[in-house]
């Protein structure tokens, strides 16, 4: 009789996302730094180069919005739903994201260092470089994304999962990871191999990691 598959002991992200209801369409949003907007919907809006530091969006919906080089430093996003966001340069360091979903995102470089993400789902999309240095991540799911470089230097993460992602370089120097699941995702290179403590991988990934692990331990492998 075949043995049942082993049960994973890795705790998955706990997400309870829901789409904002009854958001009011704002045809030409005029946003200012420090604004607090609630229950609004922006579609195909051009917010490029805006000065929106410290803005709060709560239960808002953004679809097809362009945010290239927009200053979102210290912004807060609470229970929002974003789709088809576009920004060759996305600037939101020290921002806060809670119970928010992002789908089909297209970012060139994303500056999210020192940010806090709690209950966030990033689903699909193409991102060239994501800078999450020193960020705090809790209950974060990244699924179906193509990411050129994912920089998690100094990150503190609990219940983080990267699912069905294709990632060029994953940087983990100084990362502190708990219940972090990398299974089903692929990587061309990993920097900061010591940061893998607390990470769950599958058997195939372990084989791919073998050269990096050997190098970090100073092993010489000869046939």
In short:
By secondary structure, this protein is mainly beta.
Task: Count all strands and give the number.
Answer: 17
Structural class: mainly beta
Strand content: over 45%
Assembly type: single chain
Largest sheet: 17 strands, parallel
**Tally of individual helices:** 1
Percentage of helical residues? Answer: under 10%
Taking all Cα atoms into account, the compactness measure Rg is 19 Å
Average pLDDT taken over every residue:
92
**What does the overall shape look like?**
elongated
Give the low-confidence spans. none
- Strand-and-helix sequence, N→C? EEEEEEEEEEEEEEEEEH
Amino- and carboxy-terminal Cα gap: 39 Å
Give a verbal description of the structure.
The chain is mainly beta and 223 residues long. It is 6% helix and 45% strand. The protein has one helix and 17 strands. The protein has one helix at residues 203-216; strands at residues 24-25, 36-38, 40-43, 56-58, 61-63, 76-78, 81-83, 86-91, 96-111, 116-131, 136-143, 146-151, 156-163, 166-171, 176-181, 186-191, 199-200. The chain has a 17-stranded parallel β-sheet that branches. It is elongated and about 65 Å long. The mean pLDDT is 92.
